[in-house]
Amino acid sequence: MDPVEKKASPGDQGRHCELRCPHCGREFEAFLVERVDGSRSPELKSRLLRNELNRMTCPQCNYLFLVESELLYRDLDRGLIIYLMPGAGERWREAENKVKSLLVNYLAEFGGAAKPLPEVQLVFSRAELMERICMIDKGYELLAVEYIKYLIYTRNAGRLNPRSKRLLFNAEDSDERTLWFVIQDIATHRLEGVLQFEHQAYRAICETFLQEPHARMLRGLFSGPVINARLQVLADEESDRQPEGKPQSLGAGAVDDGNKSSD
Ligand SMILES: [Zn+2]
Questions:
Q1: How far, in Å, from the CA of 62 to the mean position of ligand 1?
Q2: Among 15, 26, 47, 124, which is most buried by a count of CB atoms within 10 Å?
Q3: Does the bond joining 42 to the residue before it have cis omega, within 30 degrees of 0?
């Protein structure tokens, strides 16, 4: 497995670095992929979606492990950049600055002539990055899907705790009749169950949100670069607890997330 990392990755897609085996402590050099261009490197993209990217094998004890590091996913055809900052919920400011520097770098690459600017989204776990790429590839509306998650979290109060359970949309298995969601325990990463949602209801949500004032409401709920129903629910809870009822930025929820999430 390991040598594949080096062969398949030209220099601009990552860097060589020293890694330490979490099992035996042996240090070794490896190539870490830091950048995946969805349309130009389909092979890297498919490894990312199989969760095999930056999977290392220790040369001493053969221990297999995933290196959780920052990763930039770019889809130029769709004008989209998704940046993965593993467990960075607690580093909200840093994440925001990252988005700014990504756009500056992007502009530099095109001699400042890139327009329109790409949309930048931030995600804090690999599962979320993989979910999002599949969702976009299959043509699902991200905001509508996150809104459905928001409904599931808020209407099933107590049954699905946003602090400990993550909802992932399974675009792969969803079809014209049913949208499938998977419940993942954040601490253990274990998949614990599935939830379904009628495709017809999803279409109705998509159509409703094409019209004002609904569209504005949806954009207000998920204003980006973090478009995440779970963090939004946590931010809402946080602002409910504020004595003045002052609206809280999404950052407050993200603070909570980082503490709980280990991926
Ligand atoms: Zn080892």
A1: 6
A2: 124
A3: no
Total number of domains in the chain: 2
CA of 69 to the centre of ligand 1 (A): 19
Element (H, E) at 195: strand 191-198
Q: For residue 130, give its domain range.
A: 74-260
Tens digit of each residue's pLDDT (9 = 90 or more) over 181-218:
999 998 898 999 999 999 999 999 999 999 999 998 88
In a domain, 46, yes or no: no
CB-based neighbours (< 5 A) of ligand 1, an ion: 21, 23-24, 26, 58, 60-61, 63
Cα–ligand 1 centroid distance for 41 (angstroms): 30
CB 237 within 8 A of CB 252: no
Each residue of 111-129: pLDDT tens digit?
777 677 788 888 988 999 9
What spacing in Å lies between the alpha carbon of 262 and ligand 1's midpoint? 22
At 87, list the tokens: 């467990």
